[in-house]
Structure formats: structure tokens, C-alpha cells
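Internal QA ticket QA-208
Title: Verify multi-chain structure generation after dependency bump
Assignee: T.L.

Test input:
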Amino acid sequence: MPDTIRIEDIARHAGEEVTIKGWLFNRTDKGRLQFLQVRDGTGFVQCVVFKKEVSAEVFAEARALTQESSLIMTGTVREDSRAPGIPGGYELGVTGMRVLQQAEEHPIQPKEHGVEFLMDHRHLWLRSQRQWAILRVRATVIRAIRDWFDTHGFVNMDTPILTPAACEGTTTLFETDYFGEPAYLAQSGQLYNEADIYAFGRVYCFGPTFRAEKSKTRRHLTEFWMVEPEVAFCDLDQLMEIEEQFVSYIVQTCLRDRAHELDLLERDTSYLEKVTPPFPRISYDEAVGVVAEIREQTEDEDLRQLLAMEWGDDFGSPHETELTKRFEKPVLVYGYPTRAKAFYMEPWPDRPEVSKSVDLLAPEGYGEIIGGSERISDYDLLIQRLREWGLPREAFEWYLDLRRYGSVPHSGFGLGVERTVSWICGLDHLRETIPFPRMLKRVYP
RNA sequence: UCCUCGGUAGCUCAACUGGCAGAGCGACCGGCUGUUAACCGGUUGGUUGUAGGUUCGAGUCCUACCCGAGGAGCCA
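Actual output:
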């Protein structure tokens, strides 16, 4: 049997006799000519079975092949502009074939299906071209994230997933039984990161995070992946520089390495190409003004209702969506009201009602993909904040220690991987950005 | 938790003011040498989400419940 090749490398084998191992995902039958669309995980290729060129047995067997049957094809690679697929432009002139398993009738056909049906068959849906493209972009986003941090002085430090108590309130935590004591699935590694920077300077944690929010929207999962860097000797301005460099690198890496996939997804990449530093920066105060202005101008009564807000309120999805439509690039919104954010955020100098916080909002209506801030480094202020937020001091003794032994100004942020993938791919729902999404009322398959 | 929309064949949907439950796709059989979700002919296909009610008659109207989708709040 000729050497097995990967479909993604097919152009390098033009004219050669090769073997391809994969699955049939679609077919077109033309009498004495059959076009079998085969995928192998690395790409998609058309295999042409011509009655004159194969044995009667192979031709008959090819005719009987069902969608998703597993097979081993041998044949000659030839260039042909009519050949569909990814990378495309080459096809296999089949000379031999072995069927490993003749698949039963596959539930998912190459046509439209409803959301519920697809989600019930997520384990099979993954095989479709669209899901293949999205999840390859996801893998590239993850690689780019690690590449950037690993080459910018950050050390990867994993933080615990089972945690003792609430960082930001228990209502959104999944509780588990930890040998008779309650423990909670982590919703952030930040506090542990803050401990880690005192040993390593710059760190990042990267893992799944859990939120028991009863959110039922296109931008929420109960289990999602978040990367959280934390940096010693870093203020809010420096943090914003890191964010724009980092996000630009992720986007540009995807444009370079996943062009086929973005093309398959019919993603208009013109906006993505503009994602280079610096990003526009506006203060929360300014942003509130812009939202008020948009609200004034709109004729849409429902939108006017949704955009109602007062200074001090955090932005909701409608606000973010409208705001980002005003910018071609991601926008950094900084200086949120203290009461709208978490207890650990450093106050603005001479403006205690404002925090040194920053959110990064993706363009085209995608909204928040990063939330970050400079952290409180002063022991007394942190004690005061715990009290104001009604948090039990005992649970935070270790965290307070960090302000006792060589405290320094430090900052960090969290980037949601799924929201980033959704934006880069131009999707309208987060559920397609992770192989097996966990959502309100969805833990199967 | 709240608001809006929906549930009919394996899938995607149609069925007018209540009156014979249909089409396309798939599957199966046959035809076709360049198809791209091919095309042509044939075959196959139903507890209309569940329970109750109104009616001569309910997919259609009423009540309750279940399930799903989109949104709000909350957040990445």
C-alpha cells in the first residue's frame, strides 16, 4: 500500500500514488463516475471513482458507501481546479479502496438542522466542516495565547479548580461535596495568581472556569475557558498596553494560520485585519456620554428603553453592543465605578468612586472579552473593602498576607476564550466554540 | 426569575375564518462521465410535545404542564 498522507499536505504529492485514511462525508453519484467527499481530520478531498479504473467489486462497494463510513483510499493525486475541498484544487483518482465500517444512516446530513437536534448530536455534529473550522480556530487561539505569554516573560501557573470559598459571591458558584465540607468550582484563578506573582513576577493561569449563572443567552456558558495573566509592578496603563499587544497577536495569528477555516466560515476578515495596537481608549465617563447620545438619536423605542442607565451602573449587553459599533477596533473602556466592580480593584487617585479597571470590548457588537484591573496593594484599604462588601475576613487571611510581605502595585485581567473565538469566527452563539458546551439545561452529551 | 416566540414524518418546514395531515431533503430501487447541499423516475415514511376541555368535527380554539429558542438581569 502506498504511503499514507494527510489531506492538508495533498499539494505536495501531486502525481504520486498515495493512501488516504478517513471518512466519507458526502457523495455525488454520476452513473459510471462517483465523487466521494472524504475527510481525514486535516482537510477535505474529493475522491473520484471511475468505473473503467477500478475493479467491479470496488466500484460496487463505492456505490454502496453510506455517509460517515470509515475507509482507506488509494489512488493518484492530480491537480484539478474543479476539485472542491480544503485545501482544494487536488483530487484523488481512486484505484483501490478498503471499507473499515459501513456506517449506519447518519442523523446529520449536509443541510440545515435545528439547534436542539444539533446539540443532541454534538458528538456527531463535530464532524461537519463548519464545526471543524471553528474548533481549529479555537486551537489556534489557544496556541497563540500560550505563545504570547511564554515569549513575554510570563510563567504558566495553574490555579486550583476546587476552591474553599467565594471570591465574588456564592450565588454563581457550583457547590461540590469535599469530604463532607462544601467546596466550589473555581470561577477565577486571580487571587491565586496574585500570590504567584510574588514568586514569579509575571504569571498566567489557563483553564476551565465555572459560573452557575442562570444566563440563557448567546454569550454565556456555565463552563468556559479563561486565561488570566497577573503582573507585578504593573499599573493600569501598562496593563492596557499588554492587552492590546496580546489580543492583536491572537487575531493576527489566526488570520495567518487559519485562512482556509475563516474562509469556509465566510468570515469578513477586513475588521480583523485592523486589529493592531494601539486600541482606542475611552473612560467610563465618556462611554456613558456616548451611550446617552446614541439613546437620544435612536428612533427605536425598545432600544431607548434598553439603553437607559445612570452614572454608576455597569454596562449591559445592549450598551456594549451599541458602543462598539462606534469603533472599528476593539476598544478599551477604563475607570468603571467602584460599586459596579469587584472588591479588590484599586481606586482612582483622588476619585474613590472610580476604580482602576478596564474592559476590552470587541468590535462588531461582540462586546466584553476581557475584564481587568489594577489591584489594591494596600493592606488597610483591602481590609476596609472586605468589610464594605460584607466578605468574611477569615477566608481571605492568606490573601491579606500578600499585602503584608512585600506588597507591590500589580494588575491583571481575564480573557474569555470562547467569546474571543466567537468574535474571530464571526459566530452568533458561543455554543459552537467549544467541543462540548455546558449551558443552562445542557450537560449532554 | 421575568419577557417574547416556538414544538406536525429521521431532518427542515407547510396545512386560510375549526372540515380528507402535505412538500422538500434523507433512506431504498433504477438512470446518467465532472458533480460541488447535482439532476431525472419510482418506493418508503405520522401517538401533530403531554394531560384535560369546548365542538357534529381540533394540528388549528381554551386551561394546565413539559421541552426548546431568542432576549433582560448577571457576567468572560
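Spot checks passed. Residues 237 and 285 of chain A are 17 Å apart (CA to CA).
Status: verified.
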